[in-house]
Amino acid sequence: MRRKGKVTRYTPVFEKYQNIIYEKDGYITKITLNRPQKRNPLDRAVTIPELNDAISVAEWDDDVKVIIFKGAGAAFCCGFDLSEVGFMYGMEQPEHGQTVRRPSQRIRLWQDRYMHGEFMRHVLYCQKTTIVQAHGYCVGGGLMLAEKCDLIISAEDCKFGFIEERLGTGGNTLSPTLIFRVGLTKALELQITGKMIDGTEAARINLINRAVPADKLEAEVSELAGGIALYSRDGLAISKATRHAVYESLGLGQWFNTAYWGHSLMTNMRWEPDEYNFFKERRDRGVTEATHGQQDFYKVLDK
Q: How far apart are CA 49 and CA 111, in angstroms?
């Protein structure tokens, strides 16, 4: 689209990012999750909108051929922030005994559609070649993000798993992209159990492309990105468009239109006395103790 002889450009939403770092070096852009003190969780208020914006910035830059997603500190991403999850749905009262009006179904559906429909769709349908550089932990929402990218390279000791299933769902985040990567049998095992596996095992089952020693991860990903950047920008753009056409033929676009329903239904769950209610435990004991208790409760599934 041209206006007064100039190509219309994307206008970034944020003047400065708080929870991510955007770095461009030649044809390669690195988007780094930057909340290392909490192992880079995803939150809806800041991190996810910033990621969405940064992807658009890279897409509109014709000089960018490859996007690398990575994490600062000890992990790539520990998933959704368990100190925040649930509050927006009124699943427990906020701190200090405040009573707030429970969000309407419209608001809850809108939030879930943005996260599980629009944002994750944007990752999968990004116009640039995407690589995940995973170390430490790549779990929950972080793994959901990673599986939507083109390539995943990890450290051998990186931990992968859909641990947020242990909030009490046992399979709610199953997706076509996971099935296409590892097959239905293994996808169901990973989703239903929520157990973690290391990078070596993740590579063996084709969840990721390869696992390398942790001290060689940065060099491995940089070399791969540099090699991909040798292709012409037009060739890479055409290739991404072709992949998107394949995804559409497989019905992925339709899945994104409905994927958020399950999460919205989950916000209305109830727990019986013999079931583990993470939200009640978090309220009574704090997020750290509630998380440890959750893992102990489900440890039989780690076999």
A: 12
